[in-house]
């Protein structure tokens, strides 16, 4: 895989303010479920984890993701699961006396109240209607359509990238164009609001460079999830490329430290989001 595809030129980036992602509706209720919500500047465009990961992967001028990236599809499904977990909609079943591993425990719907996001609500509906429940690994595969079981294909979330891109168009971050590629026309979504993209890149960089990020007991869950999901979706390099050589090495070293964590042990900490750690485990097994 050509990891340099679509990367921006390495340079030092000017300081910018951070942004955080939230959904358009049910915001107050979701803040209660996710203690890591940060209101920040109320005028800033708020993005979901799915939208942030897609935006990191999109080429600014071309408006599409790298053709070489075969990880972003499953990465976006992981975003959906963690977003639902942070919002208190789903959780893992109890570990039991014999302490089942993260990847062996089933996903349980804790609350089916609407999130205000069509993709999240669609995934939540599938999980609620599934009996017996499935594991995190299975849901990543089902929602991606990567299953050999024809009975499970009904759970596939279709056109996820296009639907997320349309969300970003509605938020004024992207626009919609048509480009001709030899024998076919393709809908693309070039960047229109560079401030939002720069703010997102800066947030990812600062999260990785922050010493406390490896102290996950006190780290911001959303920043941690964004780093790990961007890595799983193979778009993290797009955020790190503009860093100086010294900061680049430090950031990548911090991410490697996170990947080397004992996810089972971290999930047992008080206030841990077990769904988040289960998704991390699924992508690194």
Automatic annotation (TrEMBL):
<dbReference type="InterPro" id="IPR038261">
    <property type="entry name" value="GPP34-like_sf"/>
</dbReference>
<dbReference type="GO" id="GO:0031985">
    <property type="term" value="C:Golgi cisterna"/>
</dbReference>
<keyword id="KW-0446">Lipid-binding</keyword>
<dbReference type="GO" id="GO:0000139">
    <property type="term" value="C:Golgi membrane"/>
</dbReference>
<keyword id="KW-0472">Membrane</keyword>
<feature type="compositionally biased region" description="Basic and acidic residues">
    <location>
        <begin position="13"/>
        <end position="42"/>
    </location>
</feature>
<dbReference type="GO" id="GO:0048194">
    <property type="term" value="P:Golgi vesicle budding"/>
</dbReference>
<dbReference type="GO" id="GO:0006890">
    <property type="term" value="P:retrograde vesicle-mediated transport, Golgi to endoplasmic reticulum"/>
</dbReference>
<protein>
    <recommendedName>
        <fullName>Golgi phosphoprotein 3</fullName>
    </recommendedName>
</protein>
<dbReference type="Pfam" id="PF05719">
    <property type="entry name" value="GPP34"/>
</dbReference>
<dbReference type="GO" id="GO:0070273">
    <property type="term" value="F:phosphatidylinositol-4-phosphate binding"/>
</dbReference>
<comment type="similarity">
    <text>Belongs to the GOLPH3/VPS74 family.</text>
</comment>
<keyword id="KW-0333">Golgi apparatus</keyword>
<dbReference type="GO" id="GO:0007030">
    <property type="term" value="P:Golgi organization"/>
</dbReference>
<dbReference type="InterPro" id="IPR008628">
    <property type="entry name" value="GPP34-like"/>
</dbReference>
<feature type="region of interest" description="Disordered">
    <location>
        <begin position="1"/>
        <end position="42"/>
    </location>
</feature>
<dbReference type="GO" id="GO:0005802">
    <property type="term" value="C:trans-Golgi network"/>
</dbReference>
<dbReference type="GO" id="GO:0005829">
    <property type="term" value="C:cytosol"/>
</dbReference>
<dbReference type="GO" id="GO:0043001">
    <property type="term" value="P:Golgi to plasma membrane protein transport"/>
</dbReference>
